[in-house]
Every structure is written in C-alpha cells, then in structure tokens.
Amino acid sequence: DAGVTQSPTHLIKTRGQQVTLRCSPKSGHDTVSWYQQALGQGPQFIFQYYEEEERQRGNFPDRFSGHQFPNYSSELNVNALLLGDSALYLCASSASGQGNHEQFFGPGTRLTVL
Amino acid sequence: AQTVTQSQPEMSVQEAETVTLSCTYDTSESDYYLFWYKQPPSRQMILVIRQEAYKQQNATENRFSVNFQKAAKSFSLKISDSQLGDAAMYFCARWGPEKLVFGKGTKLTVNP
To answer: How many A-B residue pairs are in contact by the CB < 8 A criterion?
Structure first.
C-alpha cells in the first residue's frame, strides 16, 4: 500500500505565477482534503473533495481552487501567488462512511514563493 | 471560532522518562473526535492516538495514552518511556465539521 502520495516534493515560484500540486489518495479512500501549514504553525484546512465536488471549504480566497478526478486523485491550484502562500501543503485522504474520521496524510509539497 | 489550543510551544524529556503534552479545545458539538498527530522532521503527519468523545475510557496505544476530560474540554497526551524517535512536533486536532482543526503544535525534544 503506497499510502498518500504528493508531487512535487518542492517547488519554487515567483509572485504572480500559478502553481498546481497533485495528490493521490491511499488505496480505498475516496475523499481528499488539502491543508496549508505555514512555518511554525499547525495545518489550516483549505478544502475537501468528494465525488469530484468541493464539499467543504475553509477560509481561503478564490485564488485557491481544486479538482478531484474519477480515480479520486486531486489537484490544488493557486493563482496569482503571493509571498504569504509560501508553506507546506498537505494532502489527506479518508474513506467516506468511515465513522472514525481518520485522515491519512501525505508527505507534503513545500512551496516557496519569491 | 472553534479553536484548539496547545499552551506549550516546546517541551523536553529525558530518554526513558514520561512527558505530558497539553491541549484544550472548543466545540459546540456533543459528539466529536480528538486526535494527536506526530510530525517528525520528515514532515509526514502520523496519527498517534484517537479519542471518541462519547467514550469515557481514555484511549491507549502502547506507550501513548490520553487524559480526556470532556467537561473541561481538555485532551492531554502522555508519552511513557520516551524514546529518541519520539522527538517531533506534536499536534492536537479536533474533527468537525468535515475537517480537522489543529493546534499550533508542541515541539518535543528527547534528551539522551
């Protein structure tokens, strides 16, 4: 079982650019959530995807968007990058109907905006 | 805002000794889940232990146990027989609704 995988591992962009991060969920999982973890902080919820739709969204601007594919993998897109978008982006997967709400995390993508 | 508070930014413990990490939370739900996650320098967030709020019995996983005080909204993590591999950031998190809400974390150092 490969667990949750994310790509790329690291990414460097400049202000104003756009970025796409990718996530493959753990086998058997159909729900993907994205979190932003700034340096020295706990992760902050961005949004969650289930059945290819955004089901829940945190307090993030519309510059942050996502997509879920039929194979349950997901992308996080960030437009018009700001310096403050520099962070570790974590993807977490879970199985709908699993009552314990346990989420499995990927290793993250470290985004640096210059 | 429904928050999770970890009041200890950093803690240290001697190898083989016991340490307790504190966490308090806010929620308006009557049924919810609480978690402790470990994040080593490798960045991978690893689930340490889970507590269901409707269960009065404190969860235990090997050397890790919790002290869950529902009325006080307190959820502390006790690590017994600390090992060098326990050194990491520890995050307390509450589930709900439809997302995990994390505290700011406690950095645990284990001294040999």
So the answer is: 53
Neighbours of A114 (CB within 10 A): 10
State residue B13 phi and psi, 5-degree precision: -145, 150
Q: Which residues pair with A57 in a beta bridge?
A: A47
Interface mutation vs chain B, best among A33, A37, A46, most B CBs within 10 Å = A37
Nearest-angstrom CA–CA distance, B49 and A10: 29
Q: Which residues of B touch A (CB under 8 A)?
A: 4, 33, 35, 37, 42-47, 50, 52, 91, 93, 95, 97-105
Residues of B in Cβ contact (< 8 Å) with A45: 99-101
Residues 6+ apart with CB under 8 A from A10: A109, A110, A112
CA distances from A58 to A39, A55, B4, B67 (A): 19, 11, 16, 29
* 112 residues of chain B, pLDDT tens digit each: 569 999 999 999 999 999 999 999 998 888 889 999 999 987 889 999 999 998 889 999 999 999 999 999 999 999 999 999 999 999 999 987 778 999 999 999 999 9
Q: How close, in Å, is residue B44 to chain A by CA atoms?
A: 4
